[in-house]
23S rRNA (Guanosine-2'-O-)-methyltransferase RlmB (Corynebacterium urogenitale), 323 residues
Amino acid sequence: MAGNSQRRGAVRKTNKKGAQVGSGGQRRRGLTGKKATPKAEDRTYHAAYKRKKQQQRRASGAHDNRAAARKRHGLDDQVELVVGRNPVIECLHARVPATALFVSEGAKGDDRLAEAVHTCADRGISVMEVSKQELDRMTGNGMHQGIGLQIPPYQYREVEDIIERVGQSGKPGMIVALDNITDPRNLGAVIRSVAAFGGHGVIIPERRSASVTAVAWRTSAGTAARLPVAKATNMVRALKQFQQAGYQVIGLDAGGDHTLDTYDGTTPVVIVVGSEGKGLSRLVGETCDTILSIPMAGKVESLNASVAAGVVLSEFARQRRVN
């Protein structure tokens, strides 16, 4: 019998089961997870990679040209240029603290351009003529309409200053606080609405928020010059400061405890507006005394942040006029 160690010439097997026919582990190793396929623009041999590099070189060159043009005219990175004839005129009407007016050579004259030049001359604001190409480089785009107004960095207020200022006025305060708003156009539009409806200030976070840049100046139509904007190191702490000063803090969100139709906005109030996508952050929402929703018809689920703020400000201003 095969494998019988008692038989002459027999060989004892070391294993009961011998080697099996198979892939030698190749298939098992082939099933091991691989890394994600890189994007086309990240593969050095791909045409998309070369296009991305060319775009980066162009952007870098444009930035260098802009920096060089600004340096030639004594502008540092913090100095802002408001461009466009209507925004410049509106900033001058609002007495924005401008320091210089740049006009491109050969710019087609009209009443707005003439008014800007004469207003600056009357106020002792320098008027300098530069080439269109130079103004393109200074502003970073060609949408300036041949004019740019130089303004210094915005001077932010402290939260305590706004509370004290409103308290001295003897009127019930109406403040707007922005949470997760990163678009400077939204910030500028909110500043404009707050000023239009008799509000007293705007609060923005110090980080992860739009700042009062030239874009915000332009959208606010110069009202940022006469409405205080404060930067809060911690938004939750700032809201609690207002609560301690007797303010009601209300957050705007769908499905709130109250609707705009039923809320009394005649008392001191802070209206907290979140972004259209993210809404209010969790801690800010938990700090609010009330969550308020805006009744809407149809299937519209949310409004742009500046539009939502304007709707609430308008209603509260109406209530205060009636009372």
In short: The chain is about 40% helix and 15% strand. Residues 159-322 form a domain with the Alpha/beta knot fold (CATH 3.40.1280.10). The radius of gyration is 32 Å.
